[in-house]
Amino acid sequence: MGRAVTVATCALNQWALDFEGNLERIVRSIDIAKSKGARYRLGPELEICGYGCSDHFYESDTLLHSFQVLEKLLESPATQDIICDVGMPVLHKNVRYNCRVIFLNKKILLIRPKISLANGGNYRELRWFAPWSKAKHVEEYFLPRIIQEVTGQETVPFGDAVLATKDTCLGAEICEELWAPNSPHIEMGLDGVEIFTNSSGSHHVLRKAHARVDLVNSATAKNGGIYILANQKGCDGDRLYYDGCAMISMNGETVAQGSQFSLDDVEVLVATLDLEDVRSYRAEISSRNLAASKVNPYPRVKVNFALSCPDDVAVPICLPIQWRHHSPEEEISLGPACWLWDYLRRSKQAGFLLPLSGGIDSSATACIVYSMCHQVCLAVKNGNADVLADARRIVNDETYIPEDPRELCKRVFTTCYMASENSSQDTCNRAKLLAEQIGSYHINLSIDAAVKAVVGIFSVVTGRTPRFSVHGGSSRESLALQNVQARIRMVLAYLFAQLALWARGMPGGLLVLGSANVDESLRGYLTKYDCSSADINPIGGISKTDLKNFIQYCIENFQLTALRSIMSAPPTAELEPLVDGQVAQTDEADMGMTYAELSVYGKLRKIAKAGPYSMFCKLINMWKEICSPREVASKVKHFFRMYSVNRHKMTTLTPSYHAENYSPDDNRFDLRPFLYNTSWSWQFRCIDRQVNAL
């Protein structure tokens, strides 16, 4: 009797519609799995075409090219003598399904469509796919001719079935099905399935990894069994970073853990486990055994193949390990850095340009680029040939070896302090010192001439000259003058991004980085089309509170002492005139609320689904020690007025790394109107009635 099974799972950095690259990474993962003795290999969700194809899933080309890749896989010597489980879209009876295609030795064993589709937050699977709603039902699927010619099969099983090998039984889940309240692994386990597989396209959110790990371990803690999870990793073309964390669990304990953040395009985990441990674990769970006696059986596809060897008594078995979680500060340091690297190398640009103001947000963005350079140097040191080739192409030097993060930063990162007459010497010095410590190519310039020229045009046309409030102007005049400065900085940022390398005699252009945090976006505390308008923004999904903690992390881990004075300075836009040479404008005073309060409003609005009245009801209890009901009402009303007045700014928000579940990203995550009745008359009257009653 064979009892020791060797299985492999992987995390692949797939890219939407990159069929050639995706094929190469899939084959490489299968080669690695086989070299380590695996007899079964699991890959991420929709790995053949890439998870993020979006409306390209509607196109027949996507289906065609996916089958062409499948043809190559079936023909490849790498896929012989190992069960391969790959993901791709399949059209069955003119309906598109998100499927697993499981094959062995040029024969397709089963096409398993997804049952529970992800359709919340960033996910829109119901837009492109239909769920398979026929539980434990299998139909015939007529293969395309290009596949028939390879397999010799005309039809294959399509539906909700499990695989019965010579030594065990395997059942597949796909991503969301693990998170569903009626996960298939429950009934599969009761029906004798011993190995559960899950191919995921699960993205990074701060503090989320433990939830995924807990779900996997709890799946086998109650029911026994082996659970194998594969996931995509990297940026496959949009705002999400898929964070790997491939894992293998048995009987409620983790036995293999993949990395959450790395620059390796292909990562393979292999584990050898004893099936008898599953059987003995299940033997004494009487409630499971009673339920198992009543379960309706799954259709079984018989496979003349074993995952174990006949004589395997001496084969070493993997033991449980303790899962190692990153702190939120480490997640911010690593996740956005890996996302930036993917974006940089795949966009074929020569580096980044960041308007560096000397404040917390732009400094945090600079630190993330510095962390990226650290990751690149570490990957090259560890022998990653792909990263070395990408780095050489980016810096246009075929002999270059990145060894020092500061030196790499000098080549790929340009920072620019754009001073005005309202800028203080303190912020100028902070920006310069930080640039020196991380090694960026730093530019100092003044925008005053451009500001005067733009305002001068207005004065010539209208005969009026606007003034700041401190000089006797109205709030309208003051705000317009602040916005002119902010927008000129955006124009200059793009000019320097296009031509800074040209001026230095170097090829290529730079990607402009934005640095508005998630709280400012929610409140709308930014100028439309200012420096928040950029190509991408690595901190646009991160709160001010988390960014401050990240800055402290960088002080301690990267020895960036310049950050100490940045941490202690009050956040300011520096758009109003100085008073006695000192900054008189601060962000929190301008906003009429603190960043800590903004984080609370954001979580209640998005995660708790609270409108003005529900938010008031929750906050009078949360803040009962510090605010009266009338003060709470005033704060809630002010937030919703400002949020609704500024919501239109979210329609032009720079694509940002998605890191928080209360992100106001208007593109796909937080779908709301952008023209509101900002008086909220009915809602606010409900609050007032409660205040009076209290």
TrEMBL record:
One of its GO terms (biological process) is 'de novo' NAD+ biosynthetic process from L-tryptophan. The keyword Endoplasmic reticulum does not apply. It is an enzyme of class 6 (ligase). Pathway: Cofactor biosynthesis; NAD(+) biosynthesis; NAD(+) from deamido-NAD(+) (L-Gln route): step 1/1. SUPFAM superfamilies: Adenine nucleotide alpha hydrolases-like, Carbon-nitrogen hydrolase. Gene3D superfamilies: Carbon-nitrogen hydrolase, HUPs. NCBIfam families: nadE. In the C-terminal section; belongs to the NAD synthetase family. This is Glutamine-dependent NAD(+) synthetase. It comes from Vireo altiloquus (Black-whiskered vireo). The gene is Nadsyn1.
